[in-house]
Design a protein that fits this description.
- The structure is a single chain.
- This protein is α+β, with helices and mostly antiparallel strands and 360 residues long.
- The protein has two domains: 94 residues; 243 residues, Alpha-Beta Plaits (2-Layer Sandwich).
- Helices cover 48% and strands 20% of the residues.
- The strands form two sheets. It has an eight-stranded mixed beta sheet with strand order 2-3-1-5-4-9-10-11. It has a three-stranded antiparallel beta sheet with strand order 6-7-8, with helices on one face.
- It is flat.
- About 2% of the residues have low confidence.
C-alpha cells in the first residue's frame, strides 16, 4: 500500500502554526502559557522541519523534471537520475511525516500503574508473575524510569500472587501499553520430578496515571474502611489499624493497600491506584467503538486476551497478536530485548492506523 500524498496546503499550515507559536513565546509572560507553548513548540518542531524538507524536495523535483525534458542528452540523463533520487527521498519523507501526523494518544506521555497477577497454574503462576515483574523492573531501569512498588502479595514458594507498582517517566505508557493481557509460560517447574512441561499464566494490566483534573472523585462516592494489616496465613503484621480499603460506590471498584505502616500513606497509594483504574475505565468506555473497529492484529488490550507465550524449552517468545517469534527468551525476560517486541507492536499499530486514515 502506497503512502497517501500530503497536500502542500497542509504542509504550509504546519509551518505557519510553528512560526505563530514561536512568535507567541517571545511575547507571553504568563507561566502557564509559557509551559503550554513550550510543549507545543517541542512537538511541532520535528513536524515543521520534516514539512519544510518535503516541500523543498518537491520543488527540486519539479525543477529536475523540467531539466529532464532538455534537448541536451547528457543534461537530461543527469536530471532523470536526480528525479529518481528525489522521488525516493520524497516517498521516505512522506512516510515519516504521515507517522508524525497520526493522532496521538494523549496518555502516551504518562507514567503508569503496572499490575501483575498470577493466573492459572498455582505456585508456578506466582513464580512467573514474579519473573514478569522483574522483567519490567529491569526494562524500566534501562529506560531510566523510576519504579515504586505500591503493594505486593508474595507467594510462599516465591514470586507474587499479585503486585502493583508505579513506573514514572516520560513516555512510559506509549511503550508499555501493549503489555496488557494474559502472558503464558511453558516450562518445567522446579518441583516437577518427571521433567514434564507445564503451562501457567499471569495477567498484566498497564494503566496510564491520570492527572487529578482527568478524574474527579467525590468524597461522598467513597467508603473508606481501615483494618489491621495481615501477612501470609492471616497473621497480624501490625498493631494498628493502618491498612486501608477504599470502595468507589458508583462503580464498585475496590482498592486495598496495607504495605505501609502509616494509614495516611496507604490511603494515598490506594487513591492513586483508584484514580488510575477509574481513568482506565473511562478511556475504555470512550474508545470502545474505535477499539471494536480496529480489533485485529494488535487486539483490544483486553486483560483477558492471551497475547504472548514464553516457551523455555525452545527459548522462544511468541506474540500472538502479530505472529512474531523471537528465539531470545533469556534476553527478553531480562528486559534487554523487550524493545524488539514492543517496537514491532508499535510499527504494526502505526500501519493499521495509517491504513484506517487512508480509507477515510
Amino acid at each position: 500500500m502506497s503512502t497517501p500524498s500530503i497536500p502542500d496546503e497542509k504542509l504550509t499550515a504546519i509551518r505557519e502554526r510553528f512560526s505563530a507559536v514561536e512568535k507567541e513565546m517571545e511575547t507571553t509572560t504568563e507561566p502557564a502559557d509559557i509551559v503550554r507553548l513550550s510543549k507545543e513548540h517541542a512537538e511541532l518542531r520535528p513536524v515543521a522541519e520534516a514539512s519544510e524538507a518535503l516541500q523543498n524536495a518537491r520543488a527540486e523535483r519539479i525543477e529536475a523534471q523540467e531539466m529532464a525534458a532538455s534537448d541536451d542528452a547528457d543534461m537530461a540523463a543527469m536530471a532523470a537520475e536526480e528525479v529518481e533520487s528525489l522521488s525516493a527521498q520524497i516517498e521516505a519523507l512522506e512516510s515519516k511525516l504521515q507517522l508524525m501526523l497520526l493522532p496521538k494518544d494523549k496518555a502516551d506521555d504518562r507514567s503508569v500503574i503496572l499490575e501483575v497477577r498470577a493466573g492459572t497454574g498455582g505456585d508456578e503462576a506466582a513464580l512467573f508473575a514474579g519473573d514478569l515483574f522483574r522483567m519490567y523492573q529491569r526494562y524500566a531501569s534501562l529506560h531510566g524510569w523510576k519504579v515504586e512498588v505500591l503493594s505486593a502479595s508474595e507467594s510462599e514458594m516465591g514470586g507474587f500472587k499479585e503486585v502493583q507498582a508505579s513506573i514514572s517517566g516520560t513516555g512510559v505508557f506509549a511503550r508499555m501499553k501493549f503489555e496488557s493481557g494474559v502472558h503464558r509460560v511453558q516450562r518445567v517447574p522446579e518441583t516437577e520430578t518427571q521433567g514434564r512441561v507445564h503451562t501457567s499464566a499471569a495477567t498484566v494490566a498497564v494503566l496510564p496515571e491520570p492527572e487529578e483534573v482527568d478524574v474527579e472523585i467525590n468524597d461522598s462516592d467513597l467508603r473508606i474502611d481501615v483494618f489491621r494489616a495481615s501477612g501470609p496465613g492471616g497473621q497480624s503484621v501490625n498493631t494498628t489499624d493502618s491498612a486501608v480499603r477504599i470502595t468507589h460506590l458508583p462503580t464498585g471498584v475496590i482498592v486495598i493497600q496495607q504495605d505501609e505502616k502509616s494509614q495516611h500513606k496507604n490511603k494515598a497509594k490506594a487513591l492513586k491506584v483508584l484514580r488510575a483504574r477509574l481513568y482506565d475505565m473511562e478511556r475504555e468506555r470512550a474508545d470502545a467503538e474505535r477499539a471494536e473497529e480496529r480489533r485485529g492484529q494488535i487486539g483490544s488490550g483486553d486483560r483477558s486476551e492471551r497475547i504472548r507465550t514464553y516457551n523455555y524449552p525452545q527459548s522462544r517468545v511468541t506474540d500472538h497478536r502479530i505472529n512474531l517469534t523471537l528465539y531470545k527468551l533469556d534476553k527478553i525476560i531480562e528486559g534487554e530485548a523487550l524493545d524488539e517486541m514492543i517496537d514491532a507492536l508499535i510499527r504494526e499499530d502505526q500501519t493499521e492506523r495509517l491504513a484506517a486514515m487512508a480509507e477515510q
